[in-house]
From TrEMBL, chain A:
<dbReference type="InterPro" id="IPR017900">
    <property type="entry name" value="4Fe4S_Fe_S_CS"/>
</dbReference>
<feature type="domain" description="4Fe-4S Mo/W bis-MGD-type">
    <location>
        <begin position="253"/>
        <end position="309"/>
    </location>
</feature>
<dbReference type="InterPro" id="IPR017896">
    <property type="entry name" value="4Fe4S_Fe-S-bd"/>
</dbReference>
<protein>
    <submittedName>
        <fullName>Formate dehydrogenase subunit alpha</fullName>
    </submittedName>
</protein>
<keyword id="KW-0411">Iron-sulfur</keyword>
<comment type="similarity">
    <text>In the C-terminal section; belongs to the prokaryotic molybdopterin-containing oxidoreductase family.</text>
</comment>
<dbReference type="InterPro" id="IPR006657">
    <property type="entry name" value="MoPterin_dinucl-bd_dom"/>
</dbReference>
<dbReference type="Pfam" id="PF04879">
    <property type="entry name" value="Molybdop_Fe4S4"/>
</dbReference>
<dbReference type="InterPro" id="IPR050123">
    <property type="entry name" value="Prok_molybdopt-oxidoreductase"/>
</dbReference>
TrEMBL record, chain B:
<dbReference type="InterPro" id="IPR021074">
    <property type="entry name" value="Formate_DH_dsu"/>
</dbReference>
<dbReference type="Pfam" id="PF11390">
    <property type="entry name" value="FdsD"/>
</dbReference>
<protein>
    <submittedName>
        <fullName>Formate dehydrogenase subunit delta</fullName>
    </submittedName>
</protein>
Amino acid sequence: MLHYYDPSIQSYEPSKSGLNPDFDYGTPASVSETLVSISVDGRAITVPEGTSVLRASALAGINIPKLCASDNLEAFGSCRLCAVEIEGRRGYPASCTTPVAEGMEVTTQTGKLAKMRRNIMELYISDHPLDCLTCPANGNCELQDVAGAVGLREVRYGFEGENHLDAEIDDSNPYFSFDPSKCIVCSRCVRACEEVQGTFALTIEGRGFDSKVAASQNDPFMDSECVSCGACVQACPTSTLMEKSVIDAGQPEHSVVTTCAYCGVGCSFKAEMKGDQLIRMVPYKGGEANHGHSCVKGRFAFGYATHDDRIKEPMIRDSINDPWKVVSWDEALAFSAKKLKGIQAKYGRESIGGITSSRCTNEETYLVQKLVRAAFGNNNTDTCARVCHSPTGYGLKTTLGESAGTQTFDSVMKADTIMVIGANPTDAHPVFGSLMRKRLRQGAKLIVIDPRRIDVLNTPHGGEGIHLPLRPGTNVAIVNALAHVIVTEGLEDQNFINSRCDTGAYNIWRTFIAEERNSPEAMEEVTGVSASKVREAARVYAGAGNGAIYYGLGVTEHSQGSTMVMGIANLALATGNIGKEGGGVNPLRGQNNVQGSCDMGSFPHELPGYQHVNDPKVRERFQSVWGVPIDDEPGLRIPNMFDAAIAGTFKAMYVQGEDIAQSDPNTQHVEAALKSLDCLIVQDIFLNETAKYAHVLLPGSTFLEKNGTFTNAERRINRVRKVMEPIAGMEDWQVTMALSNALGYPMNYNHPSEIMDEIASLTPTFTGVDYDKLEQLGSIQWPCNDDNPQGTPTMHEVEFPIGKGRFAVTEYLATEERASRRFPLLLTTGRILSQYNVGAQTRRTNNSDWHEEDVLELHPSDAELRGVSDGDWLGISSRVGHTVLRAKLSTRMLPGVVYTTFHHPGSGANVVTTDNSDWATNCPEYKVTAVQVEKVSQPSDWQRDFVDFDKRQQALLKPAMGQQESRHANTLK
Amino acid sequence: MIDQQVNNLIKMLDQIIANNRHHGDDDKVTDVAADHLHKFWARSMKQQVIECANENPEALSGLSRMTIGKLAGAADSKESLPHPQCDEDR
Ligand code: SF4
Ligand code: SF4
Ligand code: SF4
Ligand code: FES
């Protein structure tokens, strides 16, 4: 594995360095390459220059007591417990703030030091309740440990003096409590909030004895700026900041390292358990995507796994107006197989299809597409990436030759300029957002291209960013204008272009982009962004040593999504920002395994590893392993499936873990399509919106209930490990396998590792991947093969998979979805931190305390024009639909642009979004819908129908849920 | 009458052509567009636009007709693949 910016990353790799990710080495690792040798209590140790004496001692196996230090925080030197004696120096320096020096001789244990430490502890304890036996941290408390280590035996000061023992507990946060009576004011929480999370919500207020921790302006945590990431809770050496789940259930007794199933950051966590009960999720320091940090979703929002709404038994029904009937697995699978075969016999081989899930594991996704291609005998497989990052696949493959981001997350720490386009990392990819903020605090420059003023622009201590607030739908115009400046002002990296890029394609592109019509001045009218600002941004990006681009769905979900992705690649190629750390083109993938689901062949035209179905050599390899011929024509994409369903030629669908009824655009069209199916098989953990139209409901398993792998946005394959048994007895891959067997196409795997072995044998970028290696290395970034046996952190370092980088001409074409007299505003959609996508999981946790409903944000000037105030009900109409949301006035958008989220099904955000889509991939144009808004007094017709339909479907489910409960209870007995 | 599904396909095809106009003359543009359909469209979608071009050529732009002509030429030279697994079961 390569060295990145911080050797600690390597050090956290247990197998590599012998360092233990569960151990706290006291201060962060030093990045220096110069080595320094010292002796600690007579033991010699050589460490990088800049390492603290405390860390060096820990590395030598000598543990100096400490309280205010932790190896994810800069040393602070406040508790003085870590004092040592250093030969030739006076006094007792704090070892956490003293860097090593060549030849230094350190003594950590003397009578004097022991007495000093005991005195310090005595002072701490005299203002600390002595209720260790009933304290939730009992058994896992650093204060207790240090008291033991220093040999504290008595507290002479008594507890009668002035103290904080009666301080009031702040219980406002649903997940953790703050009990200031236990606080030792070590400020680790404050520093974690600043240095790790970057929110700066906490301060130490007051001085001396009166000092105490305060959230924002002495607010309850819930009302403060706190975003509930949990970093302070983890940093706290006492039980002051403590998870409520631990307070309720006691300390966990074993743990399993696994991967978060929410977003594409792919944080590693220790699932800490008591028997089969999950007590808490603690971010794992050995995780290379997150290095021990987390966000409110992965850290706390896991309660959905044991929610009463879980589907625990298979169910079937003949029509969506019938009540659900609980049946055995065999019966449900036989029923499904019979229906699917009957439909194929009647309507043809291509009349059925399947949808893989970006929430499920690589192995599960692989099996679903294999089921479709091998057992259904067609290529009608697609995945939710269709509606998010399919243009990334198309655009990056065309220009760079591979459908994936080019960097590690850590690469951002070497970026000099960070350009964020149509992404909102602090909300949608929070742990990466924190890392980005860290780099911004170190002085990297920031450019944001987004209609909204996103939070990363307000990074505390992050400097002034350049914001280009463009009109929705004009991305390509702005990326062309940026490239125009780079080309015409001579800011290109000619060396890189000459040596690494296809000359013919470059020349054509260069001539095109240099045309005056692409200049910032010419485009000003279109984008609404001042030409001088665009010029400034282009100079800052191209002039930086390393320029990194991060983008999200604000790039892809447009009618020119694929063109825009190519435009971004052009920028990086022109400035030589590919193939090196600190640069790159980085799609921030939405869901936990959206990269993986694309890699695993979910798209109708590509077999696993992005290998086209019409390549006979590729098909030959798959056919030889799968034992059946593979159709050489691409299959239907999700929107095509809907159209075909409405036309009556597409009749059945197997949907694993995706809620197409809520997440796809033009809801009424989707509903009509789903209603016209003869057989809809939904495999999910809840009765989601799609399942309300289903005939077969197969219980899914959560990420806690299965083994497998997820691949995050940096191509990192991480292990998912089972921490509890699947609620319905089968992991999702087992269900797909059983369905395949019922259909007569045999699948027999005993463990997901066998599926991965098959994937590796068929996918050139995965040939070196197996579970043993994953165990050994912790994680692997593909490509991993003979050329890169340990994986590939940075792509395209020497050459592109297509040889030379290919510039692409990116002509700007205005979308047809334009503001008009009838629909004068542009609606754009997005997400917020606490909720996740369709919200099926997060809505079933306390995360809803932060976001109870979707609202429509609009600019005060648009509100005034319509007589709208904060909190009013607003009707939102587009040419396809109408819905009603509450108004929230906000200056984060430009006048003329309104914004909402789609986390709650009843909001009907997608009732108004249209089925316009990206020209190359059909990725829907969620980010631009022309709408009108007006004050209304009642919900929309669709919303009323939605409520009725939901009630009816819940009623049809209720008896079955009762039945499943009693059956389930019986099996458990 | 052209149904909604075919209308969508026509719209998609227009969009593909519009986004590839920069490739050069009509011949080149329709080559690129036909190749795009070949690579990314399902068999049934191709068949539907080919049928539409035969039955309702006036519903299509000149470039769309030219693209479909090229697509149809390519399709003629290739037979659809039988699939024993499913064809047997029928
Ligand atoms: S939970 Fe996170 S954001 Fe909130 S105070 Fe703690 S560190 Fe800061
Ligand atoms: S709350 Fe915990 S981490 Fe923060 S100052 Fe108090 S003891 Fe230290
Ligand atoms: S950042 Fe993403 S992967 Fe990490 S904890 Fe949050 S939701 Fe999970
Ligand atoms: S650990 Fe060094 S001063 Fe607190």
